[in-house]
Design brief:
The complex is a heterodimer of chains A (about 350) and B (about 200). Chain A has two domains: about 130 residues, Nucleotidyltransferase, domain 5 (2-Layer Sandwich), CATH 3.30.420.40; about 160 residues, 2-Layer Sandwich (Nucleotidyltransferase, domain 5), CATH 3.30.420.40. In chain A, about 40% of the residues lie in helices and about 20% in strands. Chain A is built from eleven helices and ten strands. In chain A, helix 2 runs parallel beside helix 3 and helix 8 runs parallel beside helix 9. Chain B has about 200 residues and is α/β, with parallel strands linked by helices. In chain B, strands 6, 7, 8, 9, 10 and 11 form a six-stranded mixed sheet that branches. A five-stranded mixed sheet of chain B has the order 3-2-1-4-5. The longest helix of chain B is centred in the middle third of the chain and has 18 residues. Chain B is globular and about 50 Å long. The chains are: A alpha/beta (about 350), B alpha/beta (about 200). The structure holds adenosine-5'-triphosphate (ATP) and magnesium ion (MG). Chain B: This is tRNA threonylcarbamoyl adenosine modification protein YeaZ.
Chain lengths: ~350, ~200
């Protein structure tokens, strides 16, 4: 059995976790920064980086203490090396390198997106490759064919905003606060999803990609019309987003070939209405549906430790001079989607 | 053993001391490459740099560089169960300048800051002490503040050219010189000295 320490600091959560190859989460700790960023209505990179450096080592000490383990007991150190806000990524990566040198342990530099992509296998031991993954997070909206550890084929991506970004911008437009995803989901519960006519960008198109910018503009017009409550707009926005995600994922399923399951991961996957709609889609296609528990969908270090477990088991580790990367696509061979505001 | 780490400037600088005596150092101008170079440079030191004490440059300096050095120092401290302390980049530069027998009794350290400002701090030689707290000043305000005959740091030349007074010398902090600092000056908490608030304004 291998024990891996995972470190995460690529956006606005600082996190550390100890996870075993038997899928046991021995300890995990997370420090969010919502309060610090709230006045700005979004994550401020320099504020994020300053917070990461203060709390990263205390979190590492905390998980070792909770698990009653020390550095000598673990097999490798896994740290997010990108993509993300580079100042924050460096804090976690340097902490990982320092621990790896001090303990004489291998370093596993983890792609944050691979952390999301493999997290369903931490949650579900039965999930085998290849599976179709809808990765929906703050910075990404992609359909990926997950063929194995380190082996990803991107079938679709967003040509403008990510799904989580659309939730965050909608929350901002409606004055629902920060972070936006949970706020929109909550407001949507008391709104009428059929009240506001909103577009469904890309739905029905042969082109496989996603688009959310037009939806966001329509939300702005609906708000400015003064005809609708924020709850009705939130519910209608969420319904339109679900229609887009389901249509595009259905198209992806049709082109994915033989797969074991439909899987969703990333922060937006913690939305229960979205999970429900994707579950129904999987059932219509006779496929198992796998979604990690909500806390494993948003950023955390257990998923980074787990990606470390999988890479370590495949004999993959990295030299101590490995750079931090602001951009790092999972599928480096994927053609650029037209109009894509390249995020990775 | 004591390990010193300095990544506050474009230099990536590490040194190992035994009983205050320099055992080995690595010093390279890396620009922005600290995150790649630092740990391999420590690993090249005798015993892979292992020490019971670590001192690290807390700034002011490159925000990213400071965080690279501090993250590494704190992680090594945790892993080796070593004490981690900090020092000020400006204090080290002052101590390095004062190590020259011909240096005057007072000097001002000036390094480039952000938004056209510079970080300024003035020091006396005997006893080694700061005359005033660290300040981030416009060039005009810096000229008004500084009375010292020697200006050091990467903004020194610009400032003495502007004011027409003072000798200017560029000095970079170097890990191997940290023992020039009196002990109290290398026992700061290992937290960044940014000298400036983050650039971020709440939306109107
Ligand atoms: N209940 C929810 N409903 C919809 N969106 C949500 C919900 N909870 C979180 N989100 C969204 O998930 C995003 C955060 O997810 P995550 O932490 O995975 O993203 P990130 O790490 O910022 O981006 P990336 O992983 O692409 O680098 C935010 O955009 C947030 O609004
Ligand atoms: Mg994420």
């Amino acid at each position: 059995m291998a024990i891996i320490l995972g470190l995460e600091s690529s956006c606005d959560e600082t996190a550390a976790a100890l996870v075993t190859s038997e899928r046991e989460i021995l300890a995990h700790a997370l420090a969010g920064q919502e309060e610090a960023h709230r006045p700005f209505g979004g994550v401020v990179p320099e504020i994020a980086a300053r917070a990461h450096v203060e709390v990263m080592t205390p979190l590492v000490a905390q998980v070792f203490e909770e698990a009653e383990l020390s550095l000598s007991d673990i097999d490798a150190v896994a740290a997010t090396a990108g993509p993300g806000l580079i100042g924050g990524v460096m804090v976690g990566l340097m902490t990982g390198k320092g621990l790896a040198l001090a303990g004489g342990k291998p370093l596993v530099a983890v792609n944050h997106l691979e952390g999301h992509a493999l997290s369903p296998r931490l949650a579900d031991p039965a999930l085998e490759f290849p599976y179709l993954l809808l990765l929906v997070s703050g910075g990404h909206c992609q359909l990926l064919l997950v063929k194995g550890v380190g082996s990803y084929e991107r079938l679709a991506t967003t040509i403008d905003d990510a799904a989580g970004e659309a939730f965050d911008k909608t929350a901002k437009l409606l004055g629902l606060g920060f972070p936006g995803g949970p706020a929109v989901e909550k407001a949507a519960q008391t709104g009428d999803p059929a009240s506001v006519p909103l577009p469904r960008p890309m739905v029905g198109r042969a082109d496989p990609h996603f688009s959310f910018a037009g939806l966001k503009s329509a939300v702005l017009r609906a708000r400015d019309s003064g005809h609708y409550t924020p709850e009705d707009i939130a519910a209608s926005f969420q319904a339109a987003t679900i229609d887009c995600l389901v249509d595009r994922t259905a198209r992806g399923l049709a082109s994915a070939g033989d797969i074991t399951a439909l899987v969703v991961a990333g922060g937006v996957a913690s939305n229960s209405a979205i999970r429900g709609a994707l579950r129904a889609l999987a059932e219509r296609n006779g496929l198992p549906f796998i979604a990690p528990p909500p806390w494993l969908c948003t950023d955390n270090a257990a998923m980074i430790a787990w990606a470390g477990v999988e890479r370590f088991a495949a004999d993959l580790s990295d030299p101590l001079d490995i750079p931090a990367r602001a951009r790092w696509p999972l599928d480096a061979d994927a053609a650029k989607a037209r109009g894509a505001g390249v995020k990775a | 053993m004591m390990l010193a780490i300095d990544t506050a400037t474009d230099a990536c600088s590490v040194a190992l001391f035994d009983g205050g005596k320099l055992v080995a150092e690595r010093h390279e101008i890396v620009g922005r490459g600290h995150a790649e170079k630092l740990i391999p440079m420590i690993a090249e030191l005798p015993g892979k740099g292992r020490a019971q004490g670590i001192i690290v440059d807390c700034g002011p300096g490159s925000f990213t560089g400071l965080r690279v050095g501090l993250s590494a120092a704190r992680a090594l401290g945790l892993g080796w169960q070593a004490q981690v302390y900090g020092y000020s980049s400006l204090a080290l530069m002052a101590a390095m300048a004062f190590s020259d027998a011909n240096a005057p009794g007072r000097l001002a350290v000036t390094i480039a800051g952000g938004h056209g400002e510079m970080f300024v701090q003035r020091f006396t030689r005997k006893p080694f002490a700061e005359i005033a707290p660290l300040a981030s000043l416009t060039p005009d305000a810096a000229i008004a503040e500084i009375e010292e005959p020697l200006l050091i740091g990467n903004a020194a030349a610009e400032l003495s050219a502007l004011s027409g007074v003072g000798e200017a010398r560029d000095i970079r902090p170097r890990a191997a010189e940290t023992m020039l600092l009196p002990k109290a000056f290398r026992e700061l908490p290992p937290s960044p000295i940014y000298g400036r608030a983050p650039d971020a304004k709440p939306p109107q």
